[in-house]
From TrEMBL:
Domain DUF418: 418-580
Taxonomic path: Bacteria, Pseudomonadati, Pseudomonadota, Betaproteobacteria, Burkholderiales
Ranges of compositional bias, category Basic and acidic residues: 328-357
Protein name, as recorded: DUF418 domain-containing protein
Transmembrane segment boundaries: 34-51, 72-95, 146-173, 179-197, 209-231, 243-260, 272-289, 400-418, 439-461, 473-495, 516-537, 543-562
Organism for this UniProt entry: Undibacterium nitidum
């Protein structure tokens, strides 16, 4: 059987790990270290808010209670920081992957097995971080994305199929339903692999098309037929917009992957830009349509409010019955609903009432979770907080994999920056970085500022307020702003002016994992009830606190790396990656000048 996915990008031979030495200072890519340190600052500014609020308030935007400096601080972070820095972090992870692969190719050192260990270790770090400290962790998600990147570059059709079947089977295990997202992720990775690596061209009705374009075209035609059918088949009517959005994405992808496939060296960044941008472009279109509708609240629908009370009463009875069954050591069996064969089709008004009622129930459940979160985080012991995080983790252990749909786009762009030697020879590419900054900053900031004129806060249950449009515009703006931020930092690194002092962040970036995790430890112990109990600190004060901690971390990073080769967590991570204990302390011989 013919192999569907060719592998022009092959892994280095699986030789034993040899000549494992610390990276010499001359080999380090200083610009990457500095950008990583800069990204950590933005991550801290963004994360600290969610050490003082429940994550279930994430869609609310700027709190209605925020005024003065707190409002300004929140506005600054929401529109100039949030989203712009996790994208930088994702870009850097892709760069790190490519740097490790390139060095393995150059030295003949093994890559796949060490990198798999590296990814598994990252997943364990992320899971422990999530449960023991903070549920806003990004490392667990990055582990899934990094595994997906391995599939993109080295996967075969057999490995894709076997993994998809395994994940699909796991999704049917009780409590593991969130594993289903991994199937969708694998499908996405396989399509990316086809675009980047498969070279066969097919003749379709006189048109020359690569396989990936043919796949997208078939999917587009199928979803287009389904979209047309949705206008005539009542059960499909509610999903009409989603089907139409899918059809637009598949057909546009068929065109783009055929038209803009060459040169082959550009496929990484093209795939990344397309995958990141297209969902938000579709989201902007739909949310613009919604913004034209009258301002409306589900709580102003009397029939929906009445129905929501009935649903909540029924849910309460079922919950009590389930608890009683568990207390008696029995398995709870949900009673079957009586089927009414003569049931009349629901009118559009009835469907709307049901949607509004379910929205009200969801809002009430979310409010209960917010209350529970705040109670546990402000009054609970450390054990209570860990149990609370563990319970949330078990509700969707693979939910973090959903982030991979956005992260993989940035990982791919990061790989291109290294493989095309854009960042590894940054000094020779300063003109390119200037162009990125000149275009990216006004577009990124311009879209963010425009979005903030539409809406900055959201009240649950309200439609037509423009909050969806605002979020999609901001998310779309994150990519150009991210590239502009990276470019500006690179230009500062190679500047001959005072701006070159930005290099003070290099040691801070070299210890990114240690500093990221220690930020969470400091914040959890300072804000949560089991620590110093300052939960709910004002936003301006949060930023002042973050700046203070960052300054201390920068100083500590300089002190530590003057004595040790790696940060503490980086040392552990490297040891797991290469499966041997690396030397930690800098010896006097290491400080002697090397012969040319």
């Amino acid at each position: 059987m013919e192999q569907v996915i060719d592998t022009p990008t092959q892994a280095p031979p699986p030789t034993a790990v040899k000549d494992l030495k610390p990276i010499a200072p001359a080999e380090r890519i200083e610009a990457i270290d500095v950008v990583r340190g800069f990204a950590l600052i933005g991550i801290f500014f963004m994360n600290i808010e969610w050490f003082n609020r429940s994550f279930n308030e994430f869609q609310d935007g700027i709190p209605a209670s925020a005024h003065g400096l707190d409002w300004l601080a929140t506005y600054f972070v929401n529109f100039f920081v949030a989203g712009k820095f996790w994208t930088i972090f994702s870009l850097l992870f892709g760069m790190g992957f490519a740097v490790m692969l390139t060095r393995a190719e150059d030295t003949g050192r093994a890559f796949l097995v060490p990198y798999i260990r590296r990814v598994l270790a990252l997943g364990v770090f992320g899971m422990m971080h999530t449960i023991l400290l903070w549920p806003g962790d990004i490392l667990f998600s990055y582990a899934f994305t990094a595994a997906g990147l391995l599939f993109v570059l080295f996967g075969t059709w057999k490995s894709f199929l076997a993994s998809a079947v395994l994940m699909l089977g796991l999704a049917f295990v009780p409590g593991m339903g969130s594993a289903g997202v991994l199937v969708g992720e694998l499908v996405l990775m396989s399509l990316i692999a086809l675009f980047i690596r498969h070279e066969r061209i097919f003749n379709v009705v006189g048109m020359r098309m690569p396989l990936v374009s043919l796949v997208f075209l078939v999917l587009g035609l199928i979803t287009t037929i389904a979209a047309v059918a949705a206008f005539f088949v009542p059960p499909m009517a509610d999903a009409k917009r989603e089907i139409m959005g899918g059809a637009a994405f598949f057909l546009a992808s068929a065109f783009v992957t055929a038209k803009f496939r060459e040169p082959a060296t550009s496929r990484f960044w093209k795939a990344g830009v397309w995958l990141y941008s297209m969902p938000f472009v579709i989201g902007i279109v739909y949310s613009t349509i919604n913004y034209q509708k009258p301002l409306e609240s589900v709580f102003n629908n009397p029939e929906a409010v009445k129905l929501s009370l009935e649903i909540e009463a029924k849910n309460k009875v079922e919950e009590e019955a389930k608890k009683a069954a568990e207390a008696a050591g029995k398995k709870y069996v949900k009673p079957e609903e009586k089927k009414d064969e003569k049931k009349a089709p629901k009118t559009e008004a009835q469907k709307k009432n049901e949607r509004d009622a379910n929205a009200i129930v969801g809002i009430h459940e979310n409010q209960k979770k917010i209350v529970e979160d705040k109670k546990v985080l402000t009054t609970g012991s450390y054990t209570d907080v860990v149990k609370h995080h563990w319970k949330e983790f078990l509700e969707g252990p693979f939910n973090a994999a959903g982030q991979a749909f956005s992260s993989i786009a940035l990982f791919l762009m990061g790989v291109w920056f290294v493989r095309a030697k854009i960042i590894t020879k940054a000094k020779e590419n300063l003109a390119f970085f200037k162009q990125l900054a000149m275009w990216g900053l006004p577009i990124g900031w311009g879209l963010s500022i425009f979005a903030s004129t539409i809406n900055v806060s959201h009240v649950a249950g309200v439609t037509g307020d423009g909050s969806g449009l605002m979020r999609n515009l901001v998310m779309f703006s994150n990519l150009p702003a991210c590239l502009a931020y990276v470019s500006i930092i690179v230009l500062m690194v190679y500047s001959t002016s005072v701006f070159s002092k930005i290099k003070v962040l290099a040691p801070y970036g070299r210890m990114a994992l240690t500093n990221y995790l220690s930020q969470s430890l400091i914040q959890a112990s300072f804000f949560y009830g089991w620590g110093f109990g300052h939960f709910g600190m004002g936003r301006a004060s949060q930023l002042a606190f973050a700046i203070g901690v960052i300054c201390l971390q920068v100083v500590f990073s300089h002190w530590w790396l003057a004595r040790f080769r790696y940060g503490p967590m980086e040392w552990i991570w490297r040891g797991i990656t290469y499966w041997q204990v690396p030397a930690l302390r800098i010896e006097s011989n290491d400080l002697k000048p090397q012969a040319a």
